[in-house]
Design brief:
By secondary structure, the protein is α/β, with parallel strands linked by helices. Helices cover 31% and strands 25% of the residues. The protein has helices at 65-76, 130-140, 165-177, 192-197, 211-220, 228-231, 234-241, 246-269, 288-297, 302-308, 311-316, and strands at 6-12, 17-24, 27-29, 37-41, 43-46, 48-53, 57-58, 61-62, 80-85, 103-105, 111-113, 123-125, 144-148, 150-153, 158-161, 181-186, 202-205, 223-225, 331-334, 350-353, 356-358. The longest helix has 24 residues, at 246-269. Bound molecules: zinc ion.
Length: 359
């Protein structure tokens, strides 16, 4: 079906060259189209990427398809056109069939240790079953597997790695043999070395990273999604745990205190950072722009964070990074230059997904 071409004009990021961009049959072209409808003028940014999202998840566990749809729409309407789901108990495969919802890369379910994660979220297992479970989730997902690398052990009263080193090594080998990449939730330091030694591809949160971990990540191209709005909630966890688990409270307090220095050390060393809202419940969807601002507030340059939430993340996830001739028309138009004022990300003037207007 051929529809009337749409015409956009303005600086096209990342290079910022002022261009006339047309959308024809869902694709970008820079060839003049006579009879095109003028759609918008402004700063044109390749579709935003939420690198740590949880579609279909709420505090109690999986939600209905209707609620999942609302979460995806909230994300889409703020310009998030590609999401890497970082673990969901809901079967969200149907989202792939929906032309009006963002592109989705699913991780399958979180893989956690028995009774050592939020109830109703993950598959909970013992170390001996880790490799087989990873194989199942790798086959059920879209090329990523999510491990819960550490969580509070009530027996030990502190943050503790979920699995043994041998189990982690076997599991990551299994995932890679099946063509899946692996990421892990890691708050503390102790879970990191076995995961990095085993060749993990990405670390979520990463508040426990030490200098040698960071060096290893740079050398091996391991990404970090810091979810700074999430790690800013550590004081809440500390208060909830202080009486029963004082050692855990102390650990979390210390991780919270050093989180900015850790993030900036990772950035300065050259770790690839990406932006994740950690959106779970519906109120936490549609807020990637807040995470972008929060990362910039930590001290990261605005152009770096925007690239981490757009062109660089797209490339990392195997999609077209920019808006070249013939690329899928997935982009967002803003009335001002977002690199100069990231707050404009809250109010896109035009969202184009698969060549159609939303938002
Ligand atoms: Zn998460």
């Amino acid at each position: 079906m051929t529809t009337t071409p749409l015409r956009f004009s303005g600086p096209v990021l990342p290079d910022g060259e002022v261009r006339e961009l047309y959308v024809v049959d869902g694709r970008v072209t820079y060839e003049h189209q006579s009879g095109a409808d003028t759609a918008a003028e402004g700063w044109i940014v390749p579709g935003l990427v939420d690198a740590h999202n949880h579609l279909g998840l709420e505090d109690g566990g999986a939600v209905s398809e209707e609620d999942t749809e609302q979460q995806a729409i909230a994300d889409r309407d703020t310009g998030v056109l590609l999401m890497r789901d970082c673990g969901s108990p809901a079967d969200t495969r149907w989202v792939h069939e929906r032309e009006d919802l963002p592109h989705l890369i699913r991780c399958g379910r979180h893989i956690a240790r028995t009774r050592r994660y939020i109830r109703g979220y993950g598959v909970e297992i013992e170390p001996d079953d880790l490799a087989d479970t990873v194989a199942e989730q790798a086959q059920a997902g879209d090329g990523w597997v999510k491990l819960v690398g550490d969580w509070i052990s009530r027996d030990e009263g502190d943050l503790t790695p979920s699995f043994t080193d041998d189990a982690v090594a076997a599991a990551i080998g299994t995932a890679h043999a099946l063509g899946a990449r692996v990421t892990a939730h890691c708050f503390g330091a102790d879970s990191l070395a076995p995961l990095l030694d085993a060749g993990i591809d990405c670390i979520e949160h990463g508040t426990g990273l030490q200098e040698h971990h960071i060096e290893q990540m740079v050398a091996r191209g391991v990404a970090l999604v810091p979810t700074v709005q999430q790690t800013d909630k550590f004081p809440e966890y500390v208060e909830a745990a202080r009486d029963k688990f004082p050692a855990y409270a102390t650990t979390m307090e210390s991780l919270h205190r050093s989180r900015r220095d850790v993030l900036m050390a990772a950035y300065d060393a050259g770790v690839d950072l990406f932006v994740g809202s950690d959106g779970g419940g519906s109120s936490r969807h549609g807020c990637l722009h807040e995470e972008i601002l929060a990362m910039a507030d930590m001290g990261l340059p605005a152009d770096y964070v925007l690239g981490a939430a757009s062109w660089r993340a797209r490339s990392w996830l195997g999609r077209n990074p920019g808006l070249d001739e013939g690329d899928p028309a997935d982009f967002v138009v803003y009335p001002r230059n977002p690199v100069e004022d990231l707050t404009v990300l809250a109010t896109p003037s035009y969202v184009v997904l698969r060549g159609r207007r939303f938002g």
